[in-house]
Amino acid sequence: MPDQPGDTSPAPTRVLVVDDEALVRAGFRALVGSAPDLEVVGEASHGADAVRQARALRPDVVLMDLRMPVMDGLEATRYLAGEPDGPRVLVVTTFDHDEYVFQALRAGASGFVLKDTPPERLLDAIRVVAAGESLLAPSVTTRLVSAFVRQAPTAPTPDDARLAGLTEREREVLALVARGRSNAELAAELVVEVTTVKTHVSRLLAKLGARDRAQLVVVAYESGLVAPSGRADG
């Protein structure tokens, strides 16, 4: 139905579904299509096709499986994250290999959900990522730290050069973001307004050259600001 004159309702969020299993793609298409504010604009069965379709269809969010033939989701995510004004990537995983999820975040994914996530939570996850936020629950963050520690060749130190330009408050905010805190939770813990938290996060993104909160988490782990125990160092 065409828009009525003066209709100011926002356009639906455009979603590209990427999975090598046709039944999974069909399920995601039906679920996403049931939400009036979301729209599936295409499907892809492997990473190379996902990159081609993303360039042609310009989706806002890509639902990305990790293990696929031809090109896996990790490499596809890296390509898409490097595109000017590229889509947000939401990884959908079974969590069989935690290290792949961490690598996907390093490659530029904005977050991830499990394939058995309740339908409404998956729809909310798409909305969150489309809005420019990242999706990182505290329980998942703990697993990512463990995955990083397993693959890290040397122990990181909290005097990492990337942290040199941060204020003490910014380091505190970064550590809390790395533990999966939302803006509202950060505001409550720091006893400040949510708008103040948003300002701190924006400054962290700019100073660290991070695309979104997911990338802030990666920096916090790699720099050693957040230790495997969840304790903030230094």
TrEMBL record:
The keyword Transcription applies. Gene3D superfamilies: 3.40.50.2300. One of its GO terms (molecular function) is DNA binding. The keyword NAD does not apply. Residues 159-224 form the HTH luxR-type domain. Pfam families: GerE, Response_reg. Residues 14-130 form the Response regulatory domain. Keywords: DNA-binding, Phosphoprotein, Transcription, Transcription regulation. It comes from the Bacteria. The modification 4-aspartylphosphate is found at D65. This is DNA-binding response regulator. It comes from Luteimicrobium album.
